Amino acid sequence: QVQLVESGGGFVQPGGSLRLSCAASGSILSIGTMGWYRQPPGKQREPVATITRSGSTNYADSVKGRFTISRDNAKNTMYLQMNSLKPEDTDVYYCNAVGVLRNTRRFNDWGQGTQVTVSS
User: Fold this and answer.
1) Strands 77-82 and 18-26
2) What pLDDT digit, counting tens, does each position of 81-102 carry?
3) Which residues sit opposite 3 in a β-bridge?
């Protein structure tokens, strides 16, 4: 009932930048916390950055000072500005959103992921 579509991934050289977007659509009443996650090989999916509806943010230590998460509540869209990218940032990045549907049911959904590759 909720679709999350990521875009903006791609190939970039070390030190470069990318901007990811996640657009939510469907029968949404409101969205609470949104976040970006990645899943390194052989590991569990881990949070990269999260943002509450009011704009409070949290970042993984590995991306602090390099990545910036933001959102546009009117557009149900979240962004991740990724600067000073490193090879170890290479991964599939997933969008997550939790909220309430118009039928008052809660949702906790994931996007399909977008590949980010950092390599020289």
Assistant:
1) antiparallel
2) 999 999 999 999 999 999 999 9
3) 25
CA terminus-to-terminus distance, the chain: 40
- Pairing relation of β-strands 106-110 and 2-7? unpaired
Q: What is the pLDDT of residues 26-74, one digit of tens each?
A: 999 999 999 999 998 899 999 999 999 999 999 999 999 999 999 999 9
| 119 token code pair | 């390599």
User: What are the DSSP E strand ranges found in 62-105?
Assistant: 67-72, 77-82, 91-101
Q: Which two tokens stand for residue 19?
A: 């901007």
**What are the structure tokens assigned to 40, written together?**
């390194």
CB atoms within 10 A of CB 21: 17
What tokens were used for 42? 């052989």
